[in-house]
Amino acid sequence: MAAEKRAAFAEDEYWGRPVPGFGDPEARLVVVGLAPAAHGANRTGRMFTGDRSGDWLYRALHRAGFASQPESTHRGDGLELTDAWVTAPVRCAPPQNRPTSAERDACATWLGAELDLLDRARVYVALGAFGYRSTVEYLRARTDGSPSVKTPQFAHGLRVTLGAKTLFTSYHVSQQNTFTGRLTEEMLDEVFASAKDALR
Predict the structure, then answer these.
(1) What tens digit of pLDDT does each residue of 113-138 get?
(2) Are 139 and 126 in contact (CB under 8 A)?
(3) Residues of 172-200 as b/e, b for ≥16 C-beta within 10 angstroms?
(4) pLDDT tens readout for residues 144-192
(5) What separation in angstroms does the CA of 26 have from each of 66, 84, 121, 182, 187?
(6) Nearest to 71 by CA among 82, 85, 60
(7) Are 127 and 157 in contact (CB under 8 A)?
(8) Which residues contact 172 (CB under 8 A, 6 or more apart)?
């Protein structure tokens, strides 16, 4: 995907490799997205960085007190997260920005290993149904008795408890949702406010 550059970024050297998670290693809040955007994280090498989806996410994290600044433009822009970590189930930019279940399954061990290292994490925010399913599967596998717990179908604004962990859901911050008004900044703020309350 790094060979197919957008004209606006023709002079940029694209990251073009699997994109690692980003944030505070001591995070109690984990945000789980979808996959690196072809001209966002795939270009910059940092999750949700350099595109409009990231603009929405980091503004919300900043308003909630988890991010040091409201924008994320490149890896050296000074952004720091406090008590929060941002990741995705798929690490490479998928064709047409649409990851498949096969890609999710192929990356599942990497996501699981990453989340295992975040041993202080207590609250998760899944952005979209794809991130929701991946997070539920991870938490079920690591929580006693939870494989038998029935979880609701994805919808915006859910709160799901799996063992000692709490999972909140939001529509993804993609332009499909933000441009159409399906997801507003107020709706996203409410999700992060609920997540922050759960950490208290």
Answers:
(1) 999 999 999 999 999 999 999 999 99
(2) no
(3) bbbeebbeeeebeeebbebbbebbbebee
(4) 655 566 789 999 999 999 989 999 999 999 999 999 999 999 999 999 9
(5) 12, 8, 8, 33, 27
(6) 60
(7) no
(8) 33, 34, 53, 127, 128, 130, 131, 183
* CA-closest candidate to residue 121, choices 90, 71, 163: 163
Which pTM value belongs to this model?
0.91
Residues with Cβ within 8 Å of 149's Cβ and at least 6 positions away in sequence, in order, are 140, 162
Q: What CATH architecture applies to the domain 18-199?
A: 3-Layer(aba) Sandwich (3.40)
Q: Are 31 and 84 in contact (CB under 8 A)?
A: yes
Counting beta carbons within 10 angstroms of the beta carbon of residue 88, is it exposed (0 to 12), middle (13 to 18) or buried (19 or more)? buried
| Residue 52 in tokens | 């409009």
pLDDT at 11 over 70: no
Beta bridge partners of 123: 29, 166
Q: Which residues of 34-67 are buried (b: 16+ CB within 10 A; e: fewer)?
A: bbbbbbbbbbbbbbbbbbebbbbbbbbbbebebb
27-85 per-position pLDDT tens digit: 999 999 999 987 789 889 999 999 999 999 999 999 999 999 999 999 999 999 999 99
User: Which residue carries 């960085």 as its tokens?
Assistant: 49
Residues in the chain: 200
Segment (H or E) for 187: helix 185-199
